[in-house]
Design goal:
heterodimer; A: 339 residues; alpha+beta; BirA Bifunctional Protein, domain 2; 11 helices; 38% helix; B: 673 residues; Phenylalanyl-tRNA Synthetase, Chain B, domain 3; Phenylalanyl-tRNA Synthetase, Chain B, domain 1; 35 strands; 31% helix; elongated
Chain lengths: 339, 673
C-alpha cells in the first residue's frame, strides 16, 4: 500500500474513532497515545517518508503534516471542551464552601506600630532603635532624672545591675541618637519598654512605645502642637479634637499631656473616657535645656520638642480591647482576629 | 491629692461649679477629677508641684484663674510671758540635711476628741481621726502642706533637740510600731539620750503624744529633699511628710505654720503657748533669682505675647520682678522650688496663657530624615511573608521563669528586683514564650498552631555582661489545613517547614543549602540547618521530648529559628533573567537505589552532570514496595533541559541523560527502572 493510501486510511480511522457518541476522556487519552506517541501511527508514517519518490515527497509530506496538526487540534479541543463542560456542570452544588487558606495574622501591636510609623514617616520622621538594657545614665541621668529625685517614682524600674536597667522608655534611644549625630534631628524611637508593675487588666510589666524627637533652630511649642495634632487627625480621624494640658516630665519643659475627644462618645462622656469626654493618649514637651546640655548641644542655638506614646494604649482604643494581658499571652483566638 | 470643695471654698471664693473648676485646674496642669459623691476634687499631682500638695496651694491656683484673693484665718492666740528659750535648746549638727528648724511649746493641753467639723474634713480627705493634737497636725498638713511633728515635751530628755545624722546600727521604734535599723544616710531628731524621730519621715514611739500628754513641742522644719528621699527609700517607707519634704516644702513658712497650729490647738485642746519660737537657721536660704529675656518667651511658645501679660502673670504667681531693657529679673517665691531657670518661667507663662490657646503651626523647617532602616523593612516583610502563609504573630513576655530559661540556655541574664520568680530571667530565646503560648492554646482546645514572634533576646557574656540580639522564631503543631469536603488535611511536618524556608530563601534571592544538625542541639531533635554562603541562616527541627514535657505539651511541636543578622546581610537584589528564546526538552528519569542513598546525593549528580542546559529538576515520585527489590527505593525525577542559544536536539539531551545514568550507577549503584 502506498504511503498516500496509508495516510488516508489513518485519517479515516481517526475520524471514525472520534465521531463516536460515547467518546470519553480515557478513550481520547488512548487515541492520543496511539496516534501521537513517540512510536505512534503518525510517527511511523513519518519514518516511511524517506521511501517515497523524491518528486512526490513534498506533497506527501505536506499531507502528513496536515494530518498530524489536525489530529493534535481535535484532541486538544476535546480536552478543552471536556474540562470546560465539567467546570460549568449544572449539577454542581456551588453552595459548598470554597477552598480553605490558612489565615495568618499580624499582632495588633505591630499593626498599630506600623500605622504610627507610617504617619510620622509621611512628615519625615524615620526610626532609630536602641538597647532594651541600658545604663542608668541613658535611661535617667541624661534625661534630667537624677538619682534621689521623686521623678524616679513615676517609673518603677527593673534593675539588672546597680547601674543597668531595663529601659523604662525609649528616650534612651533619643540620647544615643543625639550623642552620635549633630542637629538638626528628626527621629522616632519605637520599641519595647519595661515597668516593674504588677500585672493586671490595666497594666503589664512591659509595653511598647513610639517616642519622637525634633531638634532644629527656633523650634517652638506651636510647631509641636501642629505635629501632634496632625498625628491625632491621621490616626483617629479628622473629626477628633485634641487638647494640650500642662504637665510635668523631667526631660521636657514646658511639658504637656495630650487628650483627644473620646472616640466612643465624641466627648459627651461615657465609661471609656470615665465620663470626662477626653482620652489621654500621649505626653510631649519642649526638650529641656539640661538634656540638650547633657548631649553636648548648645541650648541657646538649638531647641526642639519630643513626645512619647504607648502603643498598647492606642491599640486598646483603636480595637476596643478591654484587657492589656491579651496582647501577651499568645492566645490564638485573639491573634486570629487581626488578619 | 484630695481636695475638699467645702474647705477650698473657705480659702478662695469661686462661682463656677466644682466640675468646671476641676476642668479649669486640669487646663493649667493640675489633672483634676470631681467626685460628686464625696464632694472632693482628686488631683493627680506631678512631682514638680509640691506647692499644690495642700488646700492653700490649690486655692492659689484658683485665685490665678478667678482673680479672687486668698482668705486666710487670722490667728487669735496669745503667748504667755515665760520665754521658750528657757525650756528648749535646738542644735543643728547637719546643716545640709536640715537648713532650718523651728519649734513652739504649748503647756497644759488636754488631749481629747477633735470637733466634728475637723473629723469630717479629715475623713473626707482619707485620714482617720486619732486625737485632737495629732488631728490638728494632719489638718495643718492638708491645709498648708507643711508637715509638722508634735512631741510630748516631757519625754524629751535634757531639754535639747539635736538634728544629726544617724550612726550606723542605730535604731528606733517608729510610730507604726516597727523597729527601724538606721544608717548614716538617715537624719535624726534626738534628745540628749536617744533618737526621738526620723527627721521628715516618721516620729518615734518614745516621744509620741498620747491621752496622757500635757506639754507639747511642735516642730516645723525645712529638711533637704535629697536627704529625706534617700532615707525614705532606704526604709522603703513613704509618708505624707516624706512625700512633701522630698519634693521641697516652703522654707519661709516655718513661722506661719507653727502659728496656725498653735491657734488651732489652743482653741480646741486648750493650754498656754510659751513666748517666742525656738529656732535654728544657720544660713538663711537665698531666694532663687531668674533672669528672663522677654523675647525668649515667644520664641519657645511660638506666639506673640506682650510684656504686660508676662508681668501680670508673674504678679499672679507671686513672683516679684523688675523689667528693664527687655529683661525680667525675677525673685522666685519660697514655695516654688521647681522654678530655677528661664525655661521654667516660660512654662509658667505658657501654662497660665493656656496651651490650647497657642496656635498650631505646621510650617516645617526641613531636615534630611534619617536613612531608611533596612533592617526594619526586612523584618516587616518577613512578618508579612509568614502572615501570608498562615502564621499568626504573637508577642510574649520577655521576662520568664528560671526553670524555663534553663531549658534553653545557661547563659541567662537575671533581673535583680523581679516582680516574682515566674518573671525573673530575661529570655535568651523566643522559644519559652512560644511554647508557653502553645500550652495555653492546647489547653483551650486549639491544637492547630502556627505562631511566630520577633523580638530581642538576651545572653550573658563575659566582657560586657550581656548581649542583646534580635530573634525571629516560630513553632507549628497540628494541621496546617484540616480535612475539608474536597481536600485531605495537611499536617505540619518537617517538610512543610522546610518548604516554608526554601520558599522564603527564594523570595529574598538567597542561595541556600540544607544540612542536618547533630542531636546535641539544646532543644531540637533531627533538625536541619539551612546555610547561605556557608553561614547558617536558619534551623528547623522537632522540639525535644523533655522540653515538651517541661511545658506540659502532649503534642509534637516543630520549630524554626531564623538568624536575622545573616538573613539581613545576605538578602540579595533580584536580577532580571532573559526569558527563554528556544523550546525546552522534558525528560523523566526513574532510578532504583538502595534505601541508604539520599535523594540529595542523586540530585547532586543530576545537577553536576546536567550542567548549564539543565534548567530545573523535580522529584515527583518516591516508591518502596512490592514492585521492587526489598531494601531499595525508586525515585522518579522530571528534568527540563533548554539552551539559551538554539533548539536542543534529542541526541544532545540523550548524551546528558546517559552521563547522569552512568554516574549515578557508578557512585550510588543506581539502576535505571
Amino acid at each position: 500500500m502506498s504511503l498516500l493510501s496509508k495516510i488516508n486510511e489513518t485519517r479515516d480511522a481517526f475520524e471514525k474513532a472520534v465521531s463516536q457518541d460515547s467518546l470519553n476522556e480515557s478513550h481520547v487519552e488512548r487515541l492520543k497515545n496511539e496516534y501521537l506517541a513517540r512510536k505512534g501511527r503518525i510517527a511511523t508514517l513519518f519514518s516511511q517518508l524517506g521511501s517515497v519518490d523524491a518528486q512526490d515527497r513534498p506533497e506527501i509530506g505536506k499531507l502528513l503534516n496536515e494530518l498530524k496538526t489536525n489530529i493534535e487540534k481535535k484532541i486538544d479541543s476535546f480536552f478543552a471542551e471536556s474540562t470546560f463542560s465539567k467546570s460549568v456542570d449544572d449539577n454542581i452544588d456551588y453552595s459548598l464552601p470554597g477552598d480553605e487558606f490558612p489565615s495568618g495574622s499580624i499582632h495588633p501591636i505591630t499593626q498599630t506600630m506600623r500605622e504610627v510609623k507610617r504617619i510620622f514617616q509621611s512628615i519625615g520622621f524615620f526610626s532609630a532603635y536602641g538597647p532594651e538594657i541600658d545604663d542608668d545614665y541613658h535611661n535617667f541621668e541624661a534625661l534630667n532624672i537624677p538619682k534621689h529625685h521623686p521623678a524616679r517614682d513615676m517609673q518603677d524600674t527593673f534593675y539588672i545591675t546597680e547601674n543597668h536597667v531595663l529601659r523604662t522608655h525609649t528616650s534612651n534611644t533619643q540620647i544615643h541618637v543625639m550623642e552620635n549625630s549633630e542637629p538638626p534631628i528628626r527621629v522616632i524611637c519605637p520599641g519595647r519598654v519595661y515597668r516593674n508593675e504588677a500585672i493586671s487588666i490595666r497594666s503589664y510589666c512591659l509595653f511598647h512605645q513610639v517616642e519622637g524627637l525634633y531638634i532644629n533652630r527656633d523650634v517652638s511649642l506651636s510647631e509641636m502642637k501642629g505635629t501632634i495634632e496632625y498625628f491625632c487627625r491621621q490616626f483617629f480621624g479628622n473629626n477628633v479634637k485634641s487638647r494640650f494640658r500642662p504637665s510635668f516630665f523631667p526631660f521636657t519643659e514646658p511639658s504637656a499631656e495630650v487628650d483627644i475627644s473620646c472616640i466612643m462618645c465624641t466627648g459627651k462622656g461615657c465609661s471609656m473616657c470615665k465620663k470626662t469626654g477626653w482620652l489621654e493618649i500621649l505626653g510631649c514637651g519642649m526638650v529641656d535645656p539640661s538634656v540638650l546640655k547633657n548631649v553636648g548641644y548648645d541650648s541657646e542655638k538649638w531647641s526642639g520638642y519630643a513626645w512619647g506614646m504607648g502603643i498598647e494604649r492606642l491599640a486598646i482604643l483603636k480595637y476596643g480591647i478591654d484587657d492589656i494581658r491579651l496582647f501577651f499571652n499568645g492566645d490564638i483566638r485573639f491573634l486570629r482576629q487581626f488578619p | 491629692m484630695i481636695i475638699s470643695i467645702d474647705w477650698l471654698k473657705e480659702l478662695v471664693s469661686f462661682k463656677k461649679s466644682p466640675k468646671d473648676i476641676a476642668s479649669d485646674l486640669t487646663s493649667i496642669g493640675l489633672e483634676s477629677t470631681y467626685n460628686k459623691d464625696r464632694d472632693i476634687i482628686d488631683i493627680e499631682l506631678t512631682p514638680n508641684r509640691p506647692d499644690c500638695m495642700s488646700h492653700i496651694g490649690v486655692a492659689k491656683e484658683i485665685s490665678i484663674l478667678t482673680d479672687n484673693k486668698i482668705k486666710r484665718t487670722k490667728n487669735s492666740f496669745k503667748e504667755s510671758s515665760s520665754d521658750i528659750s528657757n525650756e528648749i535648746e535646738i542644735n543643728i549638727h547637719n546643716k545640709k540635711g536640715c537648713p532650718r528648724y523651728g519649734a513652739r511649746i504649748i503647756k497644759g493641753v488636754k488631749v481629747g476628741k477633735s470637733p466634728d467639723w475637723m473629723i469630717s474634713r479629715l475623713e473626707q480627705c482619707g485620714i482617720r481621726s486619732l486625737n485632737s493634737i495629732v488631728d490638728i497636725s494632719n489638718y495643718v498638713l492638708l491645709e498648708i502642706g507643711h508637715p509638722l511633728h508634735i512631741f510630748d515635751l516631757d519625754l524629751i530628755v535634757g531639754r535639747t533637740i539635736n538634728i544629726r545624722s544617724a550612726i550606723k546600727n542605730e535604731g528606733i521604734v517608729t510610730l507604726d510600731g516597727q523597729k527601724r535599723e538606721l544608717s548614716n544616710n538617715h537624719l535624726l531628731i534626738s534628745d540628749e539620750e536617744k533618737p526621738i524621730a526620723i527627721a521628715g519621715i516618721i516620729g518615734g514611739q518614745n516621744s509620741e503624744v498620747t491621752e496622757k500628754t500635757i506639754n507639747i513641742l511642735i516642730e516645723s522644719a525645712y529638711f533637704d529633699p535629697v536627704t529625706i528621699r534617700r532615707g525614705a527609700k532606704l526604709l522603703n517607707l513613704s509618708t505624707e511628710a516624706s512625700k512633701r519634704f522630698e519634693r521641697g516644702v516652703d522654707y519661709d513658712a516655718i513661722h506661719s505654720v507653727l502659728d496656725r497650729a498653735v491657734d488651732l490647738i489652743i482653741d480646741i485642746s486648750g493650754g498656754e503657748c510659751m513666748n517666742g519660737i525656738a529656732e535654728s537657721y544657720p544660713e538663711p536660704i537665698k531666694a532663687n533669682s531668674v533672669v528672663l529675656q522677654s523675647g525668649k518667651v515667644n520664641a519657645v511658645l511660638g506666639i506673640n505675647l506682650d510684656n504686660n501679660f508676662i508681668s501680670k502673670t508673674f504678679h499672679s504667681l507671686g513672683i516679684k520682678h523688675s523689667f528693664n531693657k527687655d529683661v525680667f529679673e525675677c525673685k522666685i517665691p519660697s514655695n516654688r522650688p521647681d522654678l530655677e531657670r528661664p525655661i521654667d518661667l516660660i512654662e509658667e507663662i505658657g501654662r497660665i496663657y493656656g496651651f490650647d490657646n497657642i496656635e498650631s503651626k505646621t510650617n516645617y523647617i526641613g531636615t534630611i530624615p534619617l536613612d531608611i532602616n533596612d533592617e526594619e523593612s526586612h523584618i516587616d516583610s518577613l512578618r508579612d511573608y509568614f502572615r501570608e502563609i498562615g502564621f499568626n504573630e504573637a508577642m510574649t513576655n520577655s521576662l520568664i521563669s528560671s526553670e524555663h530559661a534553663s531549658l534553653i540556655s545557661n547563659k541567662s541574664v537575671k533581673v535583680s528586683n523581679p516582680l516574682n520568680r515566674e518573671m525573673s530571667i530575661l529570655r535568651a530565646s523566643l522559644f519559652p514564650g512560644l511554647l508557653s503560648s502553645a500550652r495555653y492554646n492546647i489547653r483551650r482546645g486549639e491544637t492547630n498552631l502556627a505562631i511566630f514572634e520577633y523580638g530581642n533576646v538576651f545572653c550573658s557574656e563575659k566582657k560586657k555582661g550581656w548581649v542583646e540580639n534580635k530573634n525571629f522564631s516560630g513553632i507549628v503543631c497540628g494541621n496546617r489545613l484540616t480535612k475539608g469536603w474536597k481536600n485531605a488535611k495537611q499536617p505540619f511536618d518537617m517538610f512543610l517547614l522546610k518548604g516554608v524556608l526554601t520558599n522564603l530563601a527564594k523570595r529574598y534571592n538567597l542561595e541556600t543549602q540544607f544540612t542536618s544538625i547533630d542531636n546535641k542541639d539544646d532543644i531540637l531533635l533531627n533538625g536541619l540547618k539551612i546555610e547561605c554562603d556557608g553561614s547558617p541562616f536558619a534551623k528547623i527541627g522537632n522540639i525535644k521530648l523533655d522540653v515538651l514535657n517541661n511545658f506540659e505539651i502532649d503534642f509534637p511541636v516543630i520549630a524554626f529559628d531564623l538568624y536575622l543578622d545573616v538573613f539581613i546581610d545576605k538578602v540579595g537584589q533580584i536580577r532580571f533573567q532573559q526569558l527563554p528564546q528556544f523550546p525546552g526538552v522534558e525528560r523523566d528519569l526513574s532510578l532504583t537505589v538502595q534505601n541508604g542513598v539520599t535523594i540529595n546525593q542523586i540530585e547532586t549528580i543530576i545537577i553536576e552532570e546536567g550542567g548549564n542546559l539543565l534548567k530545573s529538576h523535580q522529584i515527583y515520585d518516591l516508591y518502596e514496595g512490592d514492585q521492587i527489590e526489598k531494601g531499595f527505593k525508586s525515585a522518579t525525577f522530571s528534568l527540563l533541559f533548554r539552551s539559551d542559544k538554539k533548539t536542543l536536539k534529542d541526541s544532545e539531551v540523550d548524551l546528558i541523560m546517559q552521563s547522569i545514568i552512568s554516574e549515578t550507577s557508578r557512585t550510588l549503584g543506581a539502576k535505571l527502572r
